[in-house]
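If it is no trouble, might I ask you for a protein's amino acid sequence along with its C-alpha cells?
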Amino acid sequence: MLVTLTIKNFALIDNLQVSFKDGLTAITGETGAGKSILLGGISLILGKRADLSSIKNSDEKCVIEASFAINNYNLEGFFKANDLDFEKQTIIRREILPSGKSRAFINDTPVTLDVLSSLGVQLIDIHSQHQTLQLTDNNFQFQVVDAVAGNGVVLNDYSEKLSKYHHTKKELKKLIDFQQEADKEYDYNSFLLQELQSVNLKEGMLEELEAAYEKLNNVEEITENVSHALQVLGEEQIGTLSGLNELKNIFNKLSHFGESYKELSTRVQSVLIELDDIYVEIQRIEENLEADPQQLEEVNTKLQLLYSLQKKHNVLEINELLQVQEELAEKVSKTENLEAEIKERQLKLLKQEEELDALATKIHQQREKSIPALKTHLENVLSEVGMPNAQFKLDLVATNKYFVNGKDELHFLFSANKGGSFNELKKVASGGELSRIMLAIKSLLAQYMQLPTIMFDEIDTGVSGEVSTKMGGIMHEMSKTMQVFTITHLPQVAAKGDVQFKVFKEDKGGITASQIKQLTEDERVQEIAEMLGGKDVSSSAMAHAKELLLKKV
C-alpha cells in the first residue's frame, strides 16, 4: 500500500508531503485544483516518461518520492531478479533535472524505467474512464474468468509446457529445413568422404611415401654407392675392416707392455665392433635393393592422389585432410540420422501436445464452471448501480489452436437493455456503463486476487443519486481487503471514505500553488455540504452531509 508521498517542484506543487492509510481514501476538490497533477506525480513514480515542462521552477530539479508497504505483495522474487535490496517499506524516488534528464531509484539503487514500470504495475492500479477500454481487451476478459475459475496454478503449468512445446516445434522445423538442404549435398559429401577414406589417411604418411618414392626412383644410384661402401669396408687386401683387424692384432701384442697400449687395444676393438655392425647393415640394405617399377608406380600414384586431394580441399597437411574427412563424416552421418532425429522430435511433440491438451481441457472445464457465477455477480452489481437490465453472455469456444492461455476463444458479450441484442462491449456500452462494469469486475477480482492499491479517477462521472451511493459502497467494501483511493466530485462517494483529502489552490506572494490536506470530521461535513449545494451552504445541505457521513458503511 502507498504509505507516504512527497512531491517537490512539480507543475503547480512547490512542496507537498502527505501520508496515507489503508481502507478507502476519498480525494475531492474543485475542477482545476490539481487532482490530475497529483495523479501525474504518482504516474511518474510508477514509470511514466518524464516531461521537462512538468518542472515548476526550471532552475531546480523536480523530486517525487513515495514509500510503499510491500510485505504482503510477494515481490521478493522481483527484487532478486533485478538485483535490488528488498525492504518491507520500499522507497521509490524519481528526479527530473533542469537539463531534462530523468533518474529513477528503488531503495536508493538506480533503475531503468522498464524496471520501475514493471514494479509500478504491481503496486498501484490507476483506473480512469479512459482505462475502461481495458474491458474490451480479450486478454483482460480471460484474466477475469480465470481469476474466478482459480486457474492460476494450472495456467502457469500450461505456460511452461507451451514454451517447451514451441521450442520443440522450432527444433523440428530446423531439422526438416536442414534435411531439405542436406539431401541436396548428401551425394556429393558421400563421394568426397569415400574418396578420402579410400586413401586410409594417417599422419606422417605423406613423408613416408615421399621417402619411398625417392628410394625407388633412385635405386640404381643407391645400389652403386652401397656396393662401393661395402668394397671400402670389406675388400680383403685394402678394406677398412681388414686394416682394423691387423691393427687389433698389433695392439693385442702391445697391450701387456703398459696401460696406454692396453687402452688403445680396447678402443680399436670397440671401433672394429661398430664398423663390423655397419658393414652388416649395409649388406642388408644391398640385399633389399632392387628396382621395382610397379611399386614405384603405386607409390607415385598414391602421392599424386594425396597432392590432388590437398589441392581440392585447399590444405597443405595430412592432418588438415583428416579434419576435412571428419567434418564430412559428421555431415554424412547427420544426414543419414536425420530421419531418426525428426521422428524422435515428432514423437516428443505429440507427447507435449497430449500434456497441453489435458491442461487446456482442465482450464476449459474450470472456466465453464465459473462463468455462471461471474455472470450473476456482474449483473447483480450492475443492477445496484443503476443498470437493472444489464445482461452478459459469455461464450467459451474450445479450438484446436494453442493460445498463450489455453485453447479457448472467449466472446464477452453485453446487452444494456431488455430485449436488446448481445454484442461486444466496445460496440454497445457507453463510457459511463463501461466504468460501472469495470467497478463491478474489480470488486469481484478483489475477492479472488491479491490486487495492488487501486485508484479510481472520477470513475463515477455521469452518475448521481442512489447509483453513486451504491458505487461508493462497492468501493468501501473493496477497501476492507485492499487500499482504495477514489478521486470524485460526488458527495455520496466522498462520504464513503474512511478518510478524506481535499486538493485546493492557494496564492502566496502572487504565485499559485496546489496543496492537499486531510480533512477533520467538521471539515468533511463542510466540504460535502459544498459538494451538495455550492459555496453558499444551507442548513439542509449541512444536515444532508452529516447524514451521508453517518451512512458511511
Summary: Residues 177-337 form one domain. The CA atoms of residues 359 and 416 lie 35 Å apart. Residues 318-384 form the longest helix (67 residues). The radius of gyration is 47 Å.
